[in-house]
Design goal:
Blueprint lengths: L2 H19 L3 E10 L3 E8 L5 E6 L4 E6 L2 E2 L14 E7 L7 E7 L3 E8 L7 E9 L6 H6 L15 E7 L16 H18 L3 E4 L10 H10 L4 E8 L10 E5 L1 H13 L1 H8 L1 H6 L5 H31 L11 E3 L11 E8 L3 H7 L2 H21 L6 H10 L3 E4 L6 H8 L3 H8 L11 E4 L3
Parallel strand pairs: 1-5, 10-11, 10-12, 12-15, 13-14
Antiparallel strand pairs: 1-2, 2-9, 3-4, 4-7, 6-7, 8-9, 13-15, 16-17
Helix pairs in contact: 3-10, 5-8, 8-10
Length: 452
């Protein structure tokens, strides 16, 4: 064999080998995640997808072309829970060696497609989010969710609304425990238990930004809380680390650095500013110092949110310490997106380390979940009993209670006449309320102050 022929054959063999080694991509599975406002379709692939797509009308279809890809034989059937997709099927590919998939739709949607890199337990993926036109909020709805013009119940006995956000969901499993427990599963279970406790308390109401196994964007979580006029937001998570040793619960509040950053974004975004300030935004836009006045209002709102968040976080840490080990014994400040809303005080509760085998086991149990939910509920309830919104049932009850009886602890230098004068009651009424036969009282004695 001549040298020229040898090299020619070698080149052909190497070319064939190269073609084999750069084998086509492959769709290994297709998953559908329906949610109340959108539907997510996920294509699992062996390698990063090379794709294109287009929409067709009459009938409505989304067509996706996968370049140099082999198809999986079975596509998922669509359940009744899905209100957007009628069917997923294959169609004649654009080119040989490609795959064409058609999503038959029953309503107009806005498709958003993007690739995701591998992350446990998933390989490369193409994600298709289908947003229903009916799920998009109207402008009037957007502008009605405001800080200043919330239009609460004018009777002054409304429920205090608590948004309980279950972290992760759907395509985002969160952290994964040693035995395969998904954080998204644990957080939803605890969130539902907490919501049930809140709803059982007269004067309180829970809303869940995520109610099932689907993904909700971080901004959408805050938007849903705002739409429901939430007084407070609690985001439920489970921590993780690269080693199994760390354990214990923690509570996070928004860092000052993140707060200042978010204030700046809201100032520059006129639509968001209007959403937050409502009627005040219309007044501000006609003033010379619009930007500075808006910043002052947003600063005040953020300051209130951060102060409230820290006070509740302090209560939650204290209550959690009674039912589980604490990783941090004080609230921690962090730059977390879910805590960023200036108008909604928020905390994030890390219920334990799912990467710790013992805590993973506990986090899966009904008993431990109930203890964690009860601890968080007790802390939030205590805070709002002491600091109720003015137009709430809690405030109404606090006002009624203050008109009845008060308690006074006797201090050095005080006499019965001094105490009576301080509260505007007679000495005889004070003696009768406390069953005193004389005017003598001692330091540290507790006196019941009757209604004047």
């Amino acid at each position: 064999m001549s040298t020229a022929i040898f090299f020619l054959l070698s080149f052909v063999l190497l070319s064939c080998f190269s073609t084999v080694t750069s084998a086509a991509n492959e769709i290994t599975s297709v998953r559908v995640w329906p949610s109340p406002e959108s539907t997510r379709v996920v294509f699992d692939l062996k390698k990063q997808p090379d794709f294109s797509y287009f929409m067709l009308k009459k009938p409505l279809r989304l067509v996706i072309d996968f370049k140099d890809t082999t198809q999986q034989q079975v596509l998922p059937s669509i359940s009744d829970a899905n209100s957007v997709i009628e069917k997923i099927r294959y169609s004649t590919p654009k080119k040989k060696g490609w795959v064409r998939i058609v999503l038959e739709l029953n309503q107009t949607v806005k498709p958003v497609l993007f690739a995701l890199a591998p992350t446990a337990p998933y390989s490369d993926r193409l994600v298709v989010d289908l947003y229903s036109a009916q799920s998009q909020p109207a402008e009037s709805d957007k502008n009605s969710n405001t800080l200043i013009a919330k239009n609460r119940d004018i009777r002054g006995d409304r429920d205090i609304v608590i948004a309980v956000d279950a972290g992760h969901g759907g395509e985002d499993p969160g952290s994964i425990g040693p035995s395969g427990t998904y954080e998204k599963t644990v957080t939803l279970q605890i969130a539902k238990r907490l919501a049930k406790l809140i709803d059982s308390q007269e004067g309180m109401k829970a809303i869940l930004p995520r109610t099932g196994d689907y993904y909700v964007k971080l901004n959408t979580r805050s938007d849903r809380a705002r739409k429901n006029k939430a007084d407070f937001l609690i985001s439920i998570h489970a921590d993780a680390f690269i080693t199994p040793q760390p354990r214990g619960a923690s509570v996070f509040v928004l860092s000052l650095k993140r707060a200042n950053s978010e204030i700046g974004k809201w100032i520059e975004d006129s639509e968001k500013q209007s959403e937050l300030l409502g009627g005040a935004a219309d007044v501000l836009k006609d003033t010379q110092n619009e930007k500075y006045l808006a910043q002052t209002l947003l600063d005040m709102s953020m300051d209130h949110s951060m102060r409230t968040g820290f006070q509740v976080a302090d209560e939650v840490v204290s209550e959690l310490g009674k039912v589980t080990k604490l990783h941090k014994k004080r609230p921690q400040a962090a730059s977390l997106a879910v805590l960023k809303s200036p108008d909604i005080p928020s905390i994030l509760v890390e219920t334990g380390y799912i990467s710790n085998p013992e805590e993973e086991r506990l986090l899966k149990t009904r008993d431990h979940q109930e203890k964690l939910a009860t601890a968080v509920f007790s802390a939030v309830k205590t805070y709002f009993i002491n600091n109720p919104p003015d137009d709430s049932l809690f405030a109404q009850r606090k006002a009624l209670q203050s008109k009845k009886e008060q308690i006074h602890k006797v201090r050095s230098g005080e006499s019965l006449s001094v105490v009576a004068s301080q509260y505007g009651v007679s000495i005889s009424a004070l003696k009768e309320a406390n069953k005193l036969s004389t005017n003598n009282i001692v330091i540290g004695q507790t006196l019941t102050i009757p209604r004047s």
